[in-house]
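Problem: given the chain below (263 residues), write out its structure.
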Amino acid sequence: MITFVGAGPGAEDLITVRGQRLLQDADIVVYAGSLVNPGLLSLCREDCQVYNSAKMTLEEVLDVMTEGERERKRVVRLHTGDPCLYGAIREQMDALEAQGIPYEVCPGVSSFCGAAAALGAEYTLPGISQSVVITRMAGRTPVPEKESIASFAAHQATMVVFLSTGMLKELSAELIRGGYPADTPAAIVYKATWPEEKVLRCTVETLEETAREEGVTKTALIVVGRILEGEYERSKLYDPAFTTEFRQASAVPDGDQRKEGQQ
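Solution.
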């Protein structure tokens, strides 16, 4: 069996229990060396064969995995965060399927979750934003025109931007062109959950300046939205005046109390 494993956002103890067990049992591990915390490799047995995919092509990665499968070895393909986001796993899975090789996926904690934890933020605040746009700037790899930063910015939802730290001047321009006011709160989270984590708060307009002053050029997420401010509406779920399937309202809204008093 070949298993794609999400390594988590960076901290060694943020891999899932299942992912940890799979690494401990693996005969072969192919890990994304440019992004995965190498400390996770300490979970591997001494006789485990370890390959750094940062130095490999897709075909070379597939050769290692398929040869391991033929030898009936347990193979782990270790991706950063959760492999469903910018993990380039579909092409690997399709190639395995074409050869009739079974695989499974062990999900992981994405770095956008690690960034929220570092910020002490909730991406979905009542009355502010109930949607999260996860996207990236077009660079050497394009994005569909209908998914441009500017088109998403028009919604004013919370936005988390991957793989764009080297294009912050262009990112600011696109965010503002799409509709975010220049003073919209933003944050740059460098290596969320790693020991060297940095949280840089700024605005949409000052993204590039902030990153330059702090020497951040890569391995960071950009978070944009009013959820980074202090104002929001209280959740109805835990409101004492709100009845749910599991709890009856224990209080009445102020307006109703006034009406009852008048009666």
